[in-house]
Write a structure and sequence with these properties.
Length: about 350
C-alpha cells in the first residue's frame, strides 16, 4: 500500500493465477496448459521471425494471423480480432461491449477473471447461480441485462452447453451482447462461430493457449460481426497498437494451419480425459462430465484441500479453489499418459 496509489488501485481485487513454479520438479496439472509441444511448423515460423527485423514494429493489424484465422473458420477478415492472449481480448470486450447501464450477467461459478475485469472497469454485474448439478441453465438468463458472458465449456466445471441452448439464449436475448468464451472448445464441445452471421450480438472468443499448446506466446482472438469487431479495434487502438509481436503473429498463423498436429493433440487429451475420469470414479470421486482439457472432481474420502496439499508434497500440482460451493472439488488438468499414471498411482497411495 502506498500514498501514491490511485483510488482505483486501492479498490482492486486482482486475479491470482495458478502457481508457476520456477523449478521443474512438479508435474503441473494446475493451469490447464497443454502437455504436448506446439506444432513444429509454429516453432519453425517463430524461429524464422527472430532476426534483424525485430528492430521494426510488428504489423499493428496482425494481417497474416487474421487471415489464417478467417480462412480456418470460413469468416471474413473484418470478423476477426486478435489480441495478446484471450485475457486481453476479454478485457477489451468488457470495455467495448459489456460496460452498460444494466448489469452484466455471468455464472456464480465461472472464470475468475470476469469479476476482476468488472471491478477494474467499473461494470455493474449480477451473478447467476449454476444449478445443483453445477450446470448453466439458460432460462436463468432471461432478465434485463447489459450483456451476458460465460465460458463454454464452463471453467472450472468443464461442463459444456449444447449449441442449440446457445441459440435459444440468443433468440431470447437480442438487446445486449452475448460473449461465449471458448477457451476450451476444441476438447469436445461445439463452437458457436457458426451462429455469428445470424446473430449480430454474438461474440465468440478463443485462445491459442490450450488446444494449440501456445500459452507462452500469448495469442487470443474474437470472432463476431464486423461492427462488434470494430468496437474492439477502437479500444485496442486506444490502448496498445501492437499487441502481438512478429513471432507471435507468424507462430500462431502456422499453428492454426497445422491441423494434423492439432487434431492429434486434442484427440490424445480427450482419450486421456475419459480414462482419468473413469479411474477417478473408481477411486470414489464424483467427476463432472468434462468437455475441457481438465476434470473437476470431488473426493469422497478426504477433504479436497487436504488432498491438494498432499499431492503437492508428492510433487503434483492441481488447482484448489477456496470458493463457496466448489471448495470440495479439485480441478485437474489432463497431462500426458505418463503424468496421469503417476498422478493416479500417487492418489491411490494417499487414499489407501
Ligand atoms: C475460461 C478462460 N477464458 C480465458 C482464459 C485466458 O486464456 P489466455 O489469456 O491464455 O488466452 C482462460 C485461461 O485459463 C480461461 O480459463
Amino acid at each position: 500500500m502506498s500514498q501514491f496509489w490511485s483510488q482505483r488501485v486501492h479498490e482492486l481485487d486482482p486475479y491470482v493465477p495458478g502457481e508457476q513454479p520456477k523449478d521443474s520438479q512438479y508435474i503441473k496439472l494446475n493451469t490447464n496448459e497443454n502437455p504436448y509441444p506446439p506444432s513444429k511448423k509454429a516453432l519453425q515460423a517463430i524461429h524464422n521471425a527472430s532476426d534483424e527485423r525485430l528492430r521494426l514494429y510488428s504489423d499493428p493489424n496482425s494481417e497474416a494471423l487474421n487471415t489464417a484465422i478467417a480462412n480456418y473458420y470460413g469468416v471474413q477478415n473484418n470478423q476477426v480480432f486478435v489480441g495478446n492472449g484471450s485475457d486481453e481480448v476479454l478485457a477489451h470486450t468488457f470495455v467495448a461491449l459489456l460496460k452498460q447501464d444494466q448489469p452484466l450477467l455471468y455464472p456464480d461459478i465461472s472464470y475468475s477473471f470476469y469479476p476482476v475485469y468488472s471491478r477494474l472497469f467499473g461494470i455493474k454485474t449480477k451473478t447467476i447461480p449454476l444449478n445443483e448439478q453445477l450446470e448453466i441453465n439458460i432460462k436463468d438468463y432471461q432478465c434485463d441485462n447489459g450483456g451476458i458472458i460465460f465460458p463454454n465449456p464452463n471453467a472450472p466445471t468443464g461442463i459444456a452447453l449444447a449449441l442449440e441452448d446457445i441459440q435459444i439464449l440468443l433468440e431470447n436475448n437480442t438487446e445486449s451482447v452475448v460473449v461465449v468464451d471458448e477457451a476450451y472448445i476444441d476438447f469436445g464441445a461445439e463452437t458457436a462461430i457458426s451462429l455469428v452471421d445470424q446473430y449480430p450480438n454474438l461474440l465468440v472468443i478463443q485462445t491459442f493457449s490450450k488446444s494449440r499448446s501456445l500459452a507462452g506466446l500469448r495469442v487470443g482472438f474474437a470472432i463476431g460481426q464486423a461492427e462488434l469487431i470494430e468496437a474492439l479495434e477502437r479500444i485496442k487502438n486506444s490502448f496498445n497498437s501492437y499487441p502481438l509481436g512478429r513471432a507471435d503473429i507468424v507462430g500462431a498463423a502456422a499453428a492454426i494451419e497445422d491441423k494434423t498436429h492439432f487434431d492429434y493433440c486434442c484427440g490424445q487429451i480427450i482419450q486421456t480425459r475419459q480414462y482419468v475420469s473413469e479411474q477417478l470414479r473408481l477411486l470414489g470421486f464424483d467427476v463432472l462430465d468434462s468437455k475441457a482439457n481438465f476434470v473437476f472432481a470431488k473426493p469422497s474420502k478426504i477433504a479436497a484441500k487436504t488432498l491438494y496439499l498432499r499431492l503437492k508434497e508428492c510433487g503434483i500440482l492441481v488447482r484448489y479453489f477456496a470458493y463457496p460451493r466448489i471448495d470440495n472439488y479439485l480441478r485437474i488438468t489432463i497431462g500426458t499418459d505418463d503424468e496421469m499414471q503417476t498422478f493416479l498411482q500417487t492418489l491411490q497411495k494417499i487414499l489407501s
